[in-house]
């Protein structure tokens, strides 16, 4: 493991996965709030910052993590491969094995607090879910293997909660904002490929999209709420913009804001889902002869055509969460940040 120290201050908090989209935004928030910050990641991808100590290593390596966590009081776990990678081995290695290793390293180095970034989708099974709360059980039909490993990851962290190591998890959904590599770039890539001409369903399905700085704000609140005997110890919290928006309205706002046409025609949800299911079945049947990855899957249809949004009531009452950025502000800031993707 290599170490690049840029701060003479005693390390107080560590962001695991701090080079990624969410992690980098969290680092900025922590620095603004006066925390001394270190970052642990597989590689350094951001410009050098003298306020940060960077540790390069493998989160499945106990020695790498233990060295990095010395003197840390709080650990934020943001490390996770992008769901779009589709790499089952990597998902399990990082989300499950890596999280097991991180918990062990926290115990060895006497870290006091561990906050995990989980996913609200761990309770979503591909059908309508309205104002879902934290009391819902983990889905027995996860929408993909990535989500399955996120549920396992969450259980590892919550089960580790003790007097010595206080833990909790937050569940955001549909994170977007400056630096986003998935949501907004994915929408624009689909538009450029001619895949945003039609709505799936009647366009009324509500979905939570969450501005990244609301997520990081919730993470900091969660960490600060972890105290001996507090109700946040061993708990999970939905963290969203608390303003569900029709999926196709959000998508259209992004498209038109960057000079792409919004979809105007609709296709019946059940019809599109059936076509996606048949396509996936055919790809599976021919897989022994030829590997084909379908562009339209039942998962994508469900995500675009069903209600799935979550209640933040628990986060409001227990950790004092309330979104700092409205959906209007979040979309405006994000569009300003993605002008390089604008349709010329």
TrEMBL record:
<protein>
    <submittedName>
        <fullName>Sterol-4-alpha-carboxylate 3-dehydrogenase, decarboxylating-like</fullName>
    </submittedName>
</protein>
<keyword id="KW-0560">Oxidoreductase</keyword>
<dbReference type="InterPro" id="IPR002225">
    <property type="entry name" value="3Beta_OHSteriod_DH/Estase"/>
</dbReference>
<comment type="similarity">
    <text>Belongs to the 3-beta-HSD family.</text>
</comment>
<dbReference type="GO" id="GO:0016616">
    <property type="term" value="F:oxidoreductase activity, acting on the CH-OH group of donors, NAD or NADP as acceptor"/>
</dbReference>
<dbReference type="GO" id="GO:0006694">
    <property type="term" value="P:steroid biosynthetic process"/>
</dbReference>
<dbReference type="Pfam" id="PF01073">
    <property type="entry name" value="3Beta_HSD"/>
</dbReference>
<feature type="domain" description="3-beta hydroxysteroid dehydrogenase/isomerase">
    <location>
        <begin position="14"/>
        <end position="267"/>
    </location>
</feature>
<dbReference type="InterPro" id="IPR036291">
    <property type="entry name" value="NAD(P)-bd_dom_sf"/>
</dbReference>
């Amino acid at each position: 493991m290599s170490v690049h120290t840029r701060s003479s201050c005693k390390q107080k908090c560590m962001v695991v996965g701090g080079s990624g989209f969410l992690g980098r935004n969290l680092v900025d928030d922590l620095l603004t709030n006066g925390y001394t910050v270190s970052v642990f990641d597989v590689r350094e991808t951001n410009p050098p910052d003298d306020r940060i100590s960077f540790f390069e290593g493998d989160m499945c390596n106990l020695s790498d993590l233990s060295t990095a966590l010395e003197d840390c009081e709080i650990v934020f776990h943001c490390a996770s491969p992008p769901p779009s990678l589709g790499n089952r081995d990597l998902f399990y290695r990082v989300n499950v094995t890596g999280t097991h290793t991180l918990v062990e390293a926290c115990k060895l180095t006497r870290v006091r607090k561990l906050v995990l970034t989980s996913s609200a989708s761990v309770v979503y099974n591909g059908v309508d879910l309205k104002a879902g709360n934290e009391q819902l059980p983990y889905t027995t039909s996860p929408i993909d293997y990535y989500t399955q490993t996120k549920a396992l990851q969450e259980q590892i962290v919550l089960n580790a909660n003790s007097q010595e190591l206080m833990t909790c998890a937050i569940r955001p959904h549909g994170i977007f904002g400056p630096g986003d590599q998935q949501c907004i770039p994915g929408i624009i890539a689909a538009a450029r490929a001619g895949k945003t001409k039609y709505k799936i369903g009647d366009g009324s399905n509500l979905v939570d999209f969450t501005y990244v700085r609301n997520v990081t704000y919730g993470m900091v609140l969660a960490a600060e709420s972890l105290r001996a005997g507090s109700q946040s110890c061993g708990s999970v919290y939905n963290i969203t913009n608390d303003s569900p928006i029709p999926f196709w309205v959000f998508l259209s706002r992004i498209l038109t804001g960057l000079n792409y046409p919004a979809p105007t025609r609709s296709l019946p949800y059940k019809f599109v889902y059936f076509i996606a299911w048949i396509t996936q079945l055919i790809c599976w049947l021919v897989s022994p002869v030829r590997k084909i990855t379908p562009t339209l899957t039942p998962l994508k249809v469900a995500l675009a055509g069903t209600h799935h949004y979550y209640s933040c009531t628990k986060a409001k009452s227990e950790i004092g969460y309330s979104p700092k950025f409205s959906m209007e502000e979040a979309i405006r800031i994000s569009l300003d940040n993605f002008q390089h993707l604008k349709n010329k």
